[in-house]
Amino acid sequence: TALPVVAPAGFGKTTLLLQWRRWWHDAGTRVAWLTAGEDDRPARFTLALQHALRLGGVLGEADDRHAPRRDTIAELTTLLAAIAALGVDVGLVIDEAERLPEDTVRGPLQYLLLNAPANLHVAIGSRVALPLLLSELAAKDQSFALKTEDLRLRLEESLGILDARLGDRLSLDERAGVHAIADGWAMGLQLAVSAI
Q: Which of 117, 125, 122, 192 has the alpha carbon at shortest distance from 153?
């Protein structure tokens, strides 16, 4: 399953991914976390992915230090086969994916998503929509995207937060005004609370 979460900074992508990670852990799912970087070209991304899966306890330590490196697709195929062989659900979180080079997104990340076994669920946090082809997965109900509007605070949520944090220091109209100024942006609401 591919779970892209796309929204600007401050809308709670990482918080949501952390909540999913906790929920997966509580459900007995093995979880790995990878924070992407600008230097994660295809080969480096694949190695970082393997390392994250080992650190997360998804895969055991394999003594492949002396094994010749294969191409990234062969490495990913082996990795996906190992995940499928586990027979348990695996959650993979890739945060800050907007930092990935385009050849990594269109290459190994696309391959990973299209060839993921049924027990692998990949959540991807990004500030911008990535050039991924997910229509095939969406047609099979294996891709569910969340966007800015899905993460935006609704008026009643903002009012509840402001009431809990500030009590009766603001009238209902003033709280509604703060929500309008923050435009549902969670970080903006936090900054407003701090300023008040």
A: 192
Q: Which pLDDT tens digits describe the chain residue by residue (196 residues)?
A: 899 999 998 888 999 999 999 999 999 999 999 999 999 999 999 999 999 999 999 988 753 444 446 689 999 999 999 999 999 999 999 999 999 999 999 999 999 999 999 999 999 999 999 999 988 888 888 888 899 888 888 999 999 999 999 999 999 999 999 999 988 888 888 888 999 8
Which residues on adjacent β-strands are paired with residue 18? none
**Helices within the chain (DSSP H only):** 13-26, 42-55, 72-86, 102-104, 110-115, 135-139, 148-151, 155-166, 172-182, 186-195
The predicted model scores a pTM of 0.83
3-state secondary structure of 101: coil
